[in-house]
């Protein structure tokens, strides 16, 4: 499933029409950017490490979170607009996705079945909010549906592939990946709290017109 999707994406990226289609360019440069794909992979790994009932519950809450994020976009913006320079960093939605996926992965096997559904709900809402805030169109259906479809494919493809080729060291790898995601989320979130630097204007010239008078001989 992952291989087929990668082949489709590679072929899609090499088509000449990609350079002319706004939706295609946006999907390749924004939706499939590494900073967007990495937390989706982490969530997919977490989906693979839980029991079947927890997997189904997390998947349902993930879909519900996406729907809630699309319907409650302005409420989420109001709730997340608490830090300095929040608007320039997509209202901290990106760091929250990293932290949600990382929290699932570093949890123990017993607690992961409980943490994942809650984290999937939060992750889905933040994913929907990120898509709406980075949408270059006037909320056209294709610019919302296409990135959601890509995101869902990444999560489901990673989880089903790991389940099909299960190895005993997968939980250990999950905890390592989770610690990386949490570290990235903390750094990413901390950077979003730092206001941008503003250059200090030079002091006004004491001479009229700003020109220095010539020296007298």
What's the number of helices? 9
- Largest sheet entry: none
Task: Give the topology string: H per helix, E per strand.
Answer: HHHHHHHHH
Mean pLDDT: 80
pLDDT under 50 segments (min length 5)? none
How many structural domains in the coordinates?
A: 1
Q: Rg to the nearest angstrom?
A: 23 Å
Distance between the termini: 85 Å
Helix fraction?
A: over 70%
Q: How many beta-strand segments?
A: 0
Bin the strand percentage: under 5%
Question: Structural class, please?
Answer: mainly alpha
Overall, the morphology is globular
Structural topology:
Blueprint (H helix, E strand, L loop, with lengths): L1 H13 L7 H10 L2 H15 L3 H20 L1 H8 L12 H14 L2 H25 L7 H24 L5 H24 L24
Helix pairs in contact: 3-6, 3-8, 3-9, 4-7, 6-7, 6-9, 7-8
Characteristics of this structure?
mainly alpha, 217 residues
Could you give a quick summary of the protein structure above?
The protein has 217 residues and is an all-alpha fold.
């Amino acid at each position: 499933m992952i291989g087929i999707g990668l082949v489709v994406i590679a072929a899609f990226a090499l088509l000449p029409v990609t350079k002319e289609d706004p939706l295609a360019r946006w999907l390749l440069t924004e939706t499939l950017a590494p900073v967007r794909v990495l937390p989706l992979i982490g969530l997919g790994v977490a989906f693979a490490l839980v029991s079947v009932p927890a997997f189904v519950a997390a998947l349902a809450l993930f879909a519900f979170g996406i729907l809630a994020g699309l319907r409650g976009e302005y409420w989420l913006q109001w709730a997340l607009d608490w830090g300095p320079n929040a608007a320039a960093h997509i209202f901290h939605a990106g760091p929250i996705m990293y932290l949600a996926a990382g929290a699932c992965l570093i949890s123990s096997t017993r607690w992961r079945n409980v943490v994942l559904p809650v984290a999937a709900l939060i992750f889905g809402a933040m994913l929907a909010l990120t898509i709406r805030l980075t949408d270059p169109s006037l909320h056209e259906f294709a610019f919302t549906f296409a990135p959601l479809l890509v995101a869902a494919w990444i999560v489901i493809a990673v989880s089903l592939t790991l389940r099909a080729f299960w190895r005993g060291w997968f939980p250990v790898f999950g905890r390592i990946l989770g610690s990386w995601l949490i570290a990235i989320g903390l750094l990413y979130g901390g950077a979003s709290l730092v206001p941008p630097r503003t250059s200090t204007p030079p002091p006004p010239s004491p001479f009229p017109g700003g020109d220095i008078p010539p020296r007298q001989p």
